[in-house]
Amino acid sequence: MPIPEAMQIQVSYQRLLEAMTALSRHICNGRADPRWTQELGRLLQTFCDRLTTHYQLLDFDAELQEVEQRAPRLHEKLVNLQREARLIQREATALLRDFDPQKTRVPTALIDRIRTLLKWIEDHEARKNRVVLDAFYTEVGAVD
To answer: Which letter, b or e, does each residue of 8-32 get, where b requires 16 or more Cβ atoms within 10 Å of its Cβ?
Structure first.
């Protein structure tokens, strides 16, 4: 029996959060040895795979239409979120490409880019959640 689409998105999001947490923890416990670097590469690959899967499951065009129907004033915010999701995906791909598993020491700049990307995704998701809440759960006549 196939899993409903909303459940697939929820599961993929949970798996993405787990990968982000594992990657963040690993970086915080950083050591300059080959096993640590190898594990970082594995975690980075898992994170990128899960990010790709999650974004593939999201149908931004359908989401855009639904939000536009319910709250046309939020159209531009959703378009910006969609654009930002593509940039996030590009940065994740670039990080994976720039990671060199043969190096014992991972450059600090690469670790900083990973941290920045994880924070960027957290902020992006928070903004997206606010837009969805604003579109679907706005009380008529509510005071801001």
So the answer is: eeeebbebbeebbeebbebbeeeee
Whole-structure pTM value: 0.86
Per-residue confidence in pLDDT tens, the chain, 144 aa: 466 777 888 899 999 999 999 999 999 987 778 889 999 999 999 999 999 999 888 876 676 677 778 888 888 898 899 899 999 999 999 999 999 988 878 899 999 999 999 999 999 999 988 988 888 886 655 554
Q: What is the identity of the amino acid at 133?
A: L
